[in-house]
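Possible regression after last week's pipeline update?

I re-ran a chain I had predicted before the update to compare outputs. Posting the input and the new output here so someone can diff against the archived version. Not blocking, just want to make sure nothing changed silently.
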Amino acid sequence: MLTDTIKKTIKKFGLIEKGDSVIVAVSGGPDSTALLLALDSLKREYGLKLHVAHLDHMFRAAGETKKDREYVSSLSKRLGIPLIFKRIDVPAYAKESGLSFEEAAREKRYEFLLKAAKDAGAKKIALGHTMDDQAETVLMRLVRGSGLGGLRGIPPVRPLDGVLIVRPLIEAWKKEVEEYLKGMAVKPRRDVTNFMRKFLRNRIRHELMVFLKKYNPNIKEVLARSAQNFSYDYEALSDAVDRSCKGCLKVRGDSVTVSLRRLKGKRTGIRRGILRKAIEISKGDLRGIDY
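New output (post-update):
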């Protein structure tokens, strides 16, 4: 049962505490719809206060996005959960900023969700990523040339500007989601952008993953398990890097001085970690920093 999987994930990663106010991002698709219904069924047990957040990215025809909004609105009303809605012209923003459609959508989506959480007084934002998404993310980052940090995939929980992004479905497979919705006689919306080949994730999902299944029918399970293993290794390496930084870096505000003498005495993996930490401190993040 999907709710049992979610409860185990909540307990394992400490995603939700009793009395939490949670923003649930709902597109109307299978994953987010199942997430909302499952959290609603657990609302009394956890004493949750839920809010639905729906964003129109303006990727598709107005008629289709209107149907999405009406679907989510109808679902919210039936469950008695407040709805927060907004339209953002992501294609225009992508063109203006020079970002890819995927990067622009991600940036604006988080911007919207953080604002929704602030307005609702919520400290948690629940997203509907599944184990399938985890496998696809690892493969996508491997293709792009990501390091150990990126190969951890999608974290079950992560802090972002004073709130926590939580993913209660991260240990559930899409087939579990489909079975759950079927059992509840719920027919979700289907987003045609999930099949558009111009998006890298869609090419990974519909082309590369299908190809790799010919060599290993369990490729999704292998990739998802690898993400967990990479996460454990990354935690160990991060601890070692943090300890080494104390003797190698001197920080004054956003200015960082690196001791080359001490740096040269470190193993390559630790050395690279220290340099990345120095860049992160001075730059504020690691976006755009490649190999």
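Follow-up from reviewer: compared with the archived run. The two ends are 42 Å apart (CA to CA). Marking as no regression found.
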